[in-house]
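Appendix B, Record 12. Input sequence as logged:
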Amino acid sequence: MPDIKAIQMELKAGKIDGWLFYDHHHRDPIAGHILGLGSNGMATRRWFYFIPSRGEPRKLVHKIEQGALDSLPGRTQAYAGWQELRKQLQKLLSGSKKIAMQYSRENNIPYIGLVDAGTVEFVRKLKKTVVTSADLVQKFEAAWTPEQLKSHLEAGEIVDRIARTAFEQEAAMVREGRPQTEYELQQWILERFRANGLTTAEPPIAAVQPNNGNPHYEPQAAHSRPIRAGDLLLLDIWAKCERPGSVYYDITWVGYLGARVPDAYAKIFRIVREARDRAIEFVREGVARGKTIHGWEVDRTAREVIRKAGYAKYFVHRTGHSIGQEVHGNGANMDSLETRDDRKIVPRTCFSIEPGIYLPEFGVRSEVNVYVGEREARVTGAIQEEILPLLG
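Logged structural output:
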């Protein structure tokens, strides 16, 4: 059940007349999360739910799916034909001019741009100004409850332990002359998730060079390299507790299957580490001072370190992403590259900071999670300071 009063307070603060939710065939999971509808039930016909800044919410549903929004407060209107839909929607939005929707201008933030262009055009045709719901979504979908923060920290302890054990296991396998493949290590990690009550929508990444030069490399059973002595092993591991409502923990560490890390690897890691730490400090200082911080500024802070080191063209993704019930959540991303994410970083949200340098021969990434409280920001797990020498 959405907190109608809290939403209305935010609408008034933003001088927005109302928030219009719309869905068809479960195209907008944000609407499902915020309204507490999930992805269950039929949605073969369009429905609209309007929360005005003042007064009672209003529903518009099809006559053959009149129960679609029964769990929500407010009075219901029903339609059958398209002409009736248009008339009823105009009535639904009466008295309002500025309407928030899951819309992003020029689709700058694809996570938010979920309403189709035609529906936005139609609402505008009713002489309404459509604005993005991006900051509202952060407040009511991306912000964590205390229970979700607890689930994140719980998952983090387990994931950190699994990562350490995975490195130790690979070192032992190399010493014994029985190297595993990247795929076999990935499957071992998934098995450890199941044994420890964790789940993930996508499998983790285990990659040695040159595969770790591909940020989203996916080990496959038929195409996977063995992990041998002298290899640089990158582990990108994300998971959450199996309990409903739990949120993800997402990290990347690198280890070297040898006693001494080669200078070429150590040099790149030091640059990546500095970029990571500068971004963390930027967030910490800004939050402590009560300063407004935008996602693009965090990305720029990290990216500038890598640019000055001469590796700008090898840092090919944003610095970080929002983390929530999906590993890529719906809050602000740390991004000035793929988009210019101008959303404010707000309290009770979490995101990754994960700069990387991806050369043709090998790649290095270091990833931590940063949780923002009311007056402080903190890294929620262990922080890697050097490449781990695994055979020392």
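The radius of gyration is 23 Å.
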